[in-house]
C-alpha cells in the first residue's frame, strides 16, 4: 500500500483499488457467474436445505459444493452463494491472487485464511441493509498499530495495521450508482456509539456510494458501517466478496457461523500449496452439522412433535376446565363428604 492508500484506509476505513483483476479474469469470472445464475435461481428454494445462523434457510448444492440463500426484505431479491469458490475452476483466480494478497497482508497479520467467500446477485429494488460500525464483536475491530512488533514467525516487523476481518469486494462489471454498489459511512470504523439510524442506506446521514469499474476492488475493515445501495436497474448486480483474517478467526457466514469455510475435494485437488495455505482442508457437510439425506426427515419429525405438543396443550386446557367445573360443583358438598368419610 502506498502512503496515500494507507492514509485513506486509516481515515475512511476503506480503499478503492482500480483494476485489481485483469480484463481477461473479469470476463471469465462474469461468464462463470452468468452460467451459474439460472441454476442458483431455480434451485435456491429446493431441497436439500438446512437452517444456518440467524435462522437463514440455505440450499446446499451438492454438485457445486455451494450454499445459497435469499435476502428479500428490501423489495428486490438478493441471492448469496456461499463457498462459491468450489463451483468453477475459473474462480481459483481469487485464491492467493497476488495483487489482493499484497493489500491483505498489510492489513492483517499472521497465517491468513479466507473465512468467507460469496458471490452475490442483487436484483432491481434490492438493497443490502446497513450494518456494522461503532463498538462491535472484537473479530471485526479496526486496529492501527504504527509500531514494530513480532510477526507469526517471531521476526521483528513494522506494522501499520493489525486488524482481523478484512473484506474485499470485486466488481465483475461496471457498477454505476444506479446498479447498487457498496455504500459506506467513512470513518464509522472508529465510532464509539452504535448507529442510531435505520438499515435503509438512504436513511443514514454521511452515507457515501462507491461506484466501481469492472475489475476494481474495495478493501475495507468489517468494522466500517456499510451496506448495498438500492439497485434501480433491470441489470442484476454481480459481485464477489471475500473475507480474510488470521486462521484462528472463525467464519461469520450464515452457512458456517463460528466454523470454517467449506472446501470440496474437487476444489482442493486444483489448488497449489500457496492456495491451500489460505483454506482449510476439504470437509463434508456432515462436519458442518448438515446431513443432506437427513434434512427432510428431521424437519418432518420437528413438525410432527410441534403438532403433538399443540394437541397435548389443547387436551390439557380441556382437562383443566373440567377440573375447575367439578371443583365448583363439589365445593358446597365438601363438609358432608368429610363427615361421611370420617
Ligand atoms: O455490497 C453489498 O450489497 C453489501 C456487501 C457487504 O455487506 C459485505 O461485503 O460485507
List keywords for this structure.
alpha+beta, Jelly Rolls, 7 helices, 15 strands, elongated, binds 2-oxoglutaric acid
Walk me through the structure.
With 342 residues, the chain is an alpha+beta fold. The chain folds into two domains: 3-285, Sandwich (Jelly Rolls); 293-340. 28% of the residues lie in helices and 23% in strands. The protein contains seven helices and 15 strands. It has helices at 3-12, 23-43, 98-107, 265-270, 273-276, 292-330, 334-340, and strands at 14-17, 49-51, 57-61, 66-71, 78-82, 112-122, 128-131, 144-150, 156-161, 166-171, 182-184, 208-209, 217-221, 226-228, 237-246. It has a nine-stranded antiparallel β-sheet with strand order 1-13-10-15-6-5-4-3-2. 2-oxoglutaric acid binds at residues 128, 167, 169, 182, 226-228, 241.
The CATH architecture of the largest domain can be named as Sandwich
Structural class: alpha+beta
**DSSP helical segment count:** 7
How would you sum up the global shape? elongated
User: Alpha-carbon distance between the termini?
Assistant: 96 Å
Instruction: Name the bound molecules.
Output: 2-oxoglutaric acid
* Strand residue percentage: 15-25%
CATH superfamily of the largest domain: q2cbj1_9rhob like domain
- The number of domains is 2
Amino acid at each position: 500500500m502506498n502512503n496515500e492508500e494507507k492514509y485513506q484506509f486509516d481515515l475512511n476505513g476503506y480503499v478503492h483499488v482500480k483494476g485489481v483483476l485483469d480484463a481477461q479474469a473479469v470476463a471469465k469470472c462474469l461468464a462463470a457467474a452468468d452460467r451459474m445464475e439460472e441454476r442458483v435461481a431455480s434451485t435456491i428454494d429446493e431441497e436439500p436445505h438446512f437452517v444456518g445462523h440467524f435462522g437463514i434457510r440455505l440450499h446446499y448444492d451438492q454438485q457445486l459444493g455451494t450454499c445459497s440463500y435469499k435476502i428479500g426484505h428490501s423489495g428486490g431479491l438478493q441471492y448469496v452463494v456461499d463457498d462459491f469458490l468450489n463451483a468453477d475452476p475459473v474462480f481459483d483466480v481469487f485464491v492467493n491472487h497476488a495483487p489482493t494478497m499484497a493489500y491483505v497482508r498489510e492489513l492483517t497479520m499472521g497465517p491468513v485464511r479466507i473465512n468467507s467467500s460469496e458471490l452475490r446477485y442483487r436484483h432491481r429494488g434490492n438493497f443490502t441493509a446497513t450494518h456494522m460500525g461503532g463498538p462491535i464483536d472484537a473479530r471485526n475491530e479496526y486496529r492501527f498499530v504504527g509500531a514494530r512488533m513480532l510477526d507469526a514467525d517471531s521476526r521483528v516487523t513494522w506494522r501499520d495495521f493489525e486488524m482481523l476481518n478484512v473484506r474485499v469486494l470485486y466488481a465483475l462489471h461496471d457498477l454505476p450508482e444506479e446498479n447498487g454498489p457498496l455504500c459506506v459511512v467513512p470513518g464509522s470504523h472508529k465510532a464509539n456509539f452504535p448507529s442510531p439510524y435505520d438499515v435503509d442506506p438512504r436513511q443514514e446521514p454521511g452515507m457515501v456510494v462507491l461506484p466501481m469499474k469492472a475489475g476494481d476492488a474495495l478493501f475495507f475493515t468489517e468494522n466500517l458501517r456499510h451496506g448495498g445501495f438500492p439497485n434501480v436497474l433491470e441489470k442484476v448486480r454481480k459481485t464477489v466478496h471475500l473475507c480474510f483474517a488470521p486462521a484462528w478467526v472463525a467464519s461469520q457466514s450464515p452457512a458456517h457461523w463460528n466454523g470454517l469455510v467449506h472446501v470440496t475435494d474437487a476444489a482442493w485437488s486444483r489448488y497449489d500449496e500457496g492456495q491451500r495455505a489460505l483454506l482449510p482442508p476439504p470437509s463434508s457437510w456432515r462436519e458442518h452439522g448438515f446431513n443432506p439425506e437427513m434434512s427432510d426427515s428431521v424437519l418432518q419429525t420437528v413438525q410432527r412433535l410441534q403438532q403433538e405438543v399443540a394437541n397435548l396443550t389443547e387436551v390439557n386446557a380441556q382437562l383443566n376446565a373440567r377440573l375447575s367445573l367439578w371443583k365448583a360443583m363439589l365445593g358446597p358438598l365438601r363438609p358432608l363428604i368429610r363427615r361421611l368419610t370420617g
